[in-house]
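User: Can you predict the 3D structure for this chain?
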Amino acid sequence: MRSLFNKKSRFNAFKLPSWYFLLFIPRRLALLCILCVPCLFAGSLNSQPHYNQLSITRESPTKLVLSFSVNVAPLLNKVLAPTMKPDTFLKQYSNLALEQFKKELKIALTELQSKSFIYTPQGSKYELMNIQIAEASALQNILKDELVIQQLPPEFQAHLDPLVFKAEIHSTEPLYRVKIQMSNALMPLWVINTEQDKFWLTEVIPLAIINIP
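Assistant: Here is the predicted structure, written as structure tokens:
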């Protein structure tokens, strides 16, 4: 049986479906992705100068820390009301009573956790846990600020900085070579594994196999 670290077994060690091989983009084409993704998503993100980003670091052989930098309004819009237009979403959710907004935020975080995973070669599957994010009141204020920005004339070119939050992966086995899959609500997502290993995850290519140093 070939080793998992043998290049020829890089993909079949995880028993990936056949469609994955057709859609996989080699890392050497990362530059092409960088050039193409902004064009592909310009229509839906034209008011957002930052793309969602994920950095992965190891704290121990069985613990990973995932640091996200995201545009809050589009993310919550995708998770909580995917068919609602952005301006309608901002007006409705920025004016919710705080307790109701807390309930909606809990739903959003649960949705993100349930659709973001790390898989191991042994067949184990681990969800995000211990999400560390700003208070609900601060997130709702971001929506209010975004609503104000949406109403400004285009020449002002105003925007909000992305929100940083963290999550963890805890496993019962060492996490060195894994398959990562993130929620579609985060897409497109620029992933930084190492300085030499950076790539896009998108709704078309939602997963990747990586070696974590």
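Residues 29-211 form one domain. The chain has a mean pLDDT of 83.
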